[in-house]
Structures are given as C-alpha cells and as structure tokens.
Design the sequence.
C-alpha cells in the first residue's frame, strides 16, 4: 500500500509538472501570439427583443495557435490576466474593434470586454481616448463591458477611472449580471448604461424553475433605472418568448447568431437591418 501510495504520488507529481509545463508553454506562446498576429475578433449581434432589429455587436477575441489550433478564451484569458499580457492584448482588442466598427454600414455600438486587470493600468483611460481619436469612432459607439470583479476592488481609483471613461462619452455595461455576490449594491454605486443578464439564468428558463421570476425582477430593475437589459445566451424560441415577456429589452445568443468573423458582419447588418 505504501509503494502504491508513492507511485500514485509520483504519478500525480508528474501530472502536475506536465500541466505546469503546458501552462508555462501557453504563457510563452501567448507572449508571441500578439506579434505573430494569431488573434482575431469575432462579432455577435445584439438585437431588440421585440423586433429582433440590430442594436449592437459584442467583439470577442479568438486565438488560433499555429500548432494547437483554436484556444478558447476561457483557457487563455485567465493566463493573460495573471501575466499582465491582458493589457497589450486588451489594447489590441480595443483598437481592432474600433477600427472595424467605423467601416460598418450601421451606427450601432460595438462592445468590448474589459478585464479587472486592465483597471490596474493607469493608462487605460488615456488609451481609450487615444484609440477613439485615432480610429475616429464616435465615443457613443463604444461600449465597455465590465463584470462586478472590476467593482469588487472597491477603490477610488477604479471609480474615478469609470467616471473618466464615462466622461469620454463611451457606454458602460455590467456584464454577467446576477452571478456575483453584490451585483445590486454595484448598481447603486455606478450608473450603468446597460445590464447583461448572465447566460446561466437564461439556460434554465424553459426547465420550469424560478429563473423566470428572477429574470423578470432583473428586467424590472433595469426598467426602473431607465436602462436596457440584455438577456445573454438566448438559444431557443421558447427562451426568447420568456425573456420578452419578462421585459428584457434586448437579446444576444445563438438563436440570432453565433459570433462571426469580420467578413460576415456586413451580411449580419443586412439580415438584421439597422
Ligand atoms: P462573455 O463576455 O460573457 O461572452 C459571452 C460568451 O458567451 C462568449 O463566449 C459567446 O461566444 C458565448 N455565447 C454567446 N451566445 C451564446 C449562446 O446562445 N449559447 C452559449 N452556450 N454561449 C453563447 P466566448 O467567446 O468563448 O468568451 C468567453 C468569455 O471570455 C467571455 O464571456 C469573456 O468573459 C471572455 N472574453 C472573450 N473575449 C474577450 C476579450 O476580448 N477581452 C476580455 N477581457 N475577455 C474576453
Ligand atoms: Ca461580455
Ligand atoms: Ca456575459
Ligand atoms: Ca462571462
């Protein structure tokens, strides 16, 4: 039993160092990926829940590794955050999204995701100001999606940055609403332009749970604050009917379209009107 234990331990150790090695390799690759132009953006439409007319696009980053192929954001964003690489990557996302949005035959906003780590970068507000000036995108056409992890830091610097960003004229959306611990108290501390209801609430809607009551309450909250509520991850007509009945003003999800490459945006604008 002792030998077996040792063998198990050794196996575990080997496994550990293998995965640490894999992780270190991913980090090295990530550093090179920006220079090697292995990233690209995909865009997912957001539409109003009644007419299904185009209301905006969310830009999502994609990494196609030369050897491994596509690496999911949920695998590499955390590493980019831990290593600080999210700062240059985030800048690239911002710049690329703005540059592409000015070419679209529509004036709907483009949304990008901002990591809490980007708020540790004192240059963030200047970077956004500079990219807007360089690309010529109207500030009102840029929407910044933040999660409550940004506000969790609860410091004056972050609050000041949010207000400075707002002062540039960009829109600020609260992403993944409802899954955190204190989403409600953050709504009180900062006036968001939009609430995005987390996909987990939508996924269970047609399974007869209490989620519809919760989604309705969140939509009413948005409505009484005078802001839009977007239901994330709407995949079925039934979910659409429920979130519409609950009062969500907008939807985003595979039902309308999965995220698509820059080349397909024109076709989406045509299909969804704007
Ligand atoms: P998120 O910001 O909540 O983005 C929505 C995610 O849900 C996207 O996954 C999108 O492809 C997926 N999705 C959209 N509609 C549906 C649906 O109907 N069903 C299902 N099952 N999924 C749907 P993706 O692109 O894999 O991104 C995952 C997460 O990675 C994002 O979650 C975001 O937190 C992060 N991420 C992606 N791009 C960026 C980026 O440029 N910067 C930062 N900081 N984070 C990013
Ligand atoms: Ca998002
Ligand atoms: Ca989200
Ligand atoms: Ca998320």
Sequence:
């Amino acid at each position: 039993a002792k030998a077996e234990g040792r063998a198990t331990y050794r196996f575990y150790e080997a496994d550990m160092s293998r995965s640490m090695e894999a992780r270190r390799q991913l980090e090295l690759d990530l550093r090179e990926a920006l220079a090697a132009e292995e990233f690209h953006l995909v865009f997912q439409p957001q539409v109003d829940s009644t007419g299904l007319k185009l209301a905006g696009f969310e830009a999502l980053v994609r990494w196609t590794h030369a050897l491994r192929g596509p690496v999911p954001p949920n695998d590499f964003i955390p590493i980019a955050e831990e290593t600080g690489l999210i700062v240059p990557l985030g800048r690239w996302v911002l710049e690329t999204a703005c540059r592409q949005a000015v070419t679209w035959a529509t004036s709907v906003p483009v949304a990008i995701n901002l990591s809490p780590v980007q708020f540790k970068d004192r240059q963030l507000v200047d970077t956004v100001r500079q990219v807007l000036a360089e690309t010529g995108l109207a500030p009102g056409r840029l929407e910044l999606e933040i999660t409550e992890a940004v506000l969790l830091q609860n410091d004056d610097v972050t609050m000041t940055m949010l207000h400075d960003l707002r002062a540039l004229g960009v829109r600020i959306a609260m992403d993944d609403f409802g899954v955190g611990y204190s989403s409600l108290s953050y709504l009180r501390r900062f006036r968001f332009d939009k609430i995005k209801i987390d996909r987990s609430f939508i996924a269970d809607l047609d399974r007869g749970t209490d989620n519809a009551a919760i989604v309705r309450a969140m939509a009413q909250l948005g409505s009484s604050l005078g802001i839009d509520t977007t239901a994330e991850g709407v995949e079925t007509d039934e979910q659409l009917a429920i979130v519409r009945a609950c009062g969500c003003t907008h939807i985003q999800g595979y039902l309308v379209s999965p995220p698509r490459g820059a080349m397909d945006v024109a076709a989406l604008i045509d299909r969804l009107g704007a």
Summary: The radius of gyration is 20 Å. The first strand starts at residue 39 and ends at 48.
